[in-house]
Amino acid sequence: MIWSLAVAVVMLAGKSLAAWYTGSAAIFSDALESVIHLVATGFSGFSLWYASTPPDQGHPYGHGKIAYFASAFEGVLIGAAAIVIAWVAIGDLVRGPSLQQLDAGLLIIAVLTLCNAALGFYLVRTGRTYNSLVLISNGQHVLTDMWTSLGVLVGVGLVRLTGVLWLDPVAALLVAANILWTAGRLLRRSLGGLMDRADTNTTRRVLRVLNEAKSDDTIANYHQVRHRRTDDQLWIEYHLLFPGQMSVREAHARSHEVEAALHEAFANDEVRVTAHLEPRQHNQAHPPDHVEPHDPLYDLSR
């Protein structure tokens, strides 16, 4: 994130200089997106630090949820930048653009685009390695900036080759559309995390481990499966059903084996398991008026 912040400062300075040189709406749109990226990167850096702080009495599940808030914040800023870019581009289309020194501007943007490409791929790869939504979101923002700059290079390059000035604001409008699409993707991912949307791949892996642990003389069945994720922290909950004659000590040992299998299945994550042990005669273990909540992941009656 320190590298990302440093590069964001360089990007803003370089693109602002190129926009001042050329008077290009497309390059100005690229520079404006870099302003948003600098602010978002600073907030992402803070979020990454805050998410890594240990749980406390007020936040027993830790502070990792701020990663989704940071991603949403970045998406909102990107969307705002896209609206401003579109407004400026439409104004240039109406008034007619005035361009100058395009060669110098194109050279600056080309160099900065290569820097962004290298940084963006590095951030996304590192984020996926550590299951860090903050790094992944920031890396995708950097790559969006790279594609934005590449679009600007094509648009302004066409203006340089053809002399058709209205291509410049058109390129800016295309940039705005691309940024809006990225903003929407970030917001969808953030809302899914904040609402604890279950990942289907995680569900499939959890159920596979539980199914492999089932046995007539040990773990008879399971139900009430839940899981939630925040970056590399994965919380898993379930109820295990054991033969009624089995001792608590033995049932606990069997439950620990299942927990160990889950840790192995999610070796790249910090897994925290909560298991509830019950007798196989499940209905007899509860009062007559007890009603089990609906289980969306596994229905025991199936």
UniProtKB/TrEMBL annotation:
Major location (coarse): membrane
Membrane-spanning parts: 34-54, 66-90, 102-124, 169-187
Membrane topology: Multi-pass membrane protein
Cleavable signal peptide: 1-18
Biological processes, Gene Ontology terms: intracellular zinc ion homeostasis
GO molecular function terms noted in the UniProt entry: cadmium ion transmembrane transporter activity; ferrous iron transmembrane transporter activity; zinc efflux antiporter activity
Keywords, sorted A to Z: Membrane, Signal, Transmembrane, Transmembrane helix, Transport
Keyword set includes Signal: yes
Domain annotation Cation efflux protein cytoplasmic: ranges: 209-279
Domain annotation Cation efflux protein transmembrane: ranges: 2-195
Compartment(s) of residence: Membrane
SUPFAM superfamilies, per the entry: Cation efflux protein cytoplasmic domain-like, Cation efflux protein transmembrane domain-like
Family: Belongs to the cation diffusion facilitator (CDF) transporter (TC 2.A.4) family.
Protein name: Cation diffusion facilitator family transporter
UniProt organism field: Longimonas halophila
